[in-house]
Amino acid sequence: MRERGPALVAAILLTLLVAGTWWAADYARRAIPTDPPQRVTHEPDSWADDFVMVQTDTEGLAANRLEGIRMRHYPDDDSYEIDDARATGQRPDAPITIGTSRLATMNGDSTRIVMDGDAHVHRKPDAERAPLDVTSDQLILHTDTDVVETSLPARVVNGNHVLNGIGMRYDNQTRQLQVFSASDARLSGKDDQPGQPNTKTENSSP
After folding, report:
1. Closest by Cα among 76, 74, 99 to 86
2. What is the mean pLDDT of residues 83-89?
3. DSSP one-letter code for 4
4. Candidates 3.10.20.30, 2.60.450.10, 1.10.1740.10, 2.60.40.420; correct CATH number of 46-202?
5. Contact criterion met (CB below 8 Å) for 15 and 7
6. For all residues of the chain together, what is the average pLDDT?
7. pLDDT, tens digit, 9 for 90 and up, residues 96-126
8. C-alpha span between 23 and 165 (Å, rounded)
9. For position 184, what pLDDT does the model report?
10. Would you place residue 10 in the very low, low, confident or very high pLDDT band (cuts 50, 70, 90)?
11. pTM score, whole prediction
């Protein structure tokens, strides 16, 4: 019996030690506050003044340029906002286009730029084409396909042709211009010559 006494005391002490260690660990886990889940909000995490970004094509040539007086990046959707934006499309196989607006929002992969506030896209003239100007409250630029579009009221001035309507799409690669639900159109035969954009108006019911 005397020989079993120390062993029993040691077993009791070991049990108390294990129980005390478990309690201390559990108390510490509950007592120490953990970081709450990170809130995902639309707040900028970086910004820059005099912002300039150049996008190149597969051959390393500059294809698109976006600049503005200030840029903000939003991590929740990986978007960029640019104040007093100027977007230039300068693909070697297409006419140069210049888009301006008070604010521009670009997605993370730089394939879509939404121009808001006094949005204006100007296609420069050349030997075969008259200048083209599109104005609207909002214009959407697809930099990968070189397309400009809007679902809002727009005014298109293509040489001596003037079109006003709701909804517009212009493909700078094919030179095809579509104006939907045209409310006013003034077309002049002076610009009907080879190389002019294919202008199409479509009236759709509301």
Report:
1. 99
2. 96
3. H
4. 2.60.450.10
5. no
6. 82
7. 999 999 999 999 888 999 999 999 999 999 8
8. 74
9. 67
10. low
11. 0.73
Cα dihedral across residues 164, 170, 172, 175: positive or negative: negative
Domains in the chain: boundaries: 1-34, 46-202
In three-state form (DSSP H/G/I as H, E/B as E, the rest C), the secondary structure along 9-60 is HHHHHHHHHHHHHHHHHHHHHHHCCCCCCCCCCCCCCEEEEEEEEEEECCCC
Q: What is the pLDDT of residues 38-79, one digit of tens each?
A: 667 788 889 899 999 998 887 888 889 999 999 999 998 899
Contact of 166 with 155, CB cutoff 8 Å = no
What pLDDT score does 192 carry? Answer: 46
Helix (H, G, I), strand (E, B) or coil at 96: coil
Q: Which residue from 73, 84, 92, 85 is spatially nearest to 113, judged by alpha carbons?
A: 85
Name which of 180, 111, 194, 183 is nearest 147 in CA terms.
Answer: 111
Q: Which amino acid is at 83?
A: D
Q: How far apart are alpha carbons 40 and 33 in whole angstroms?
A: 21
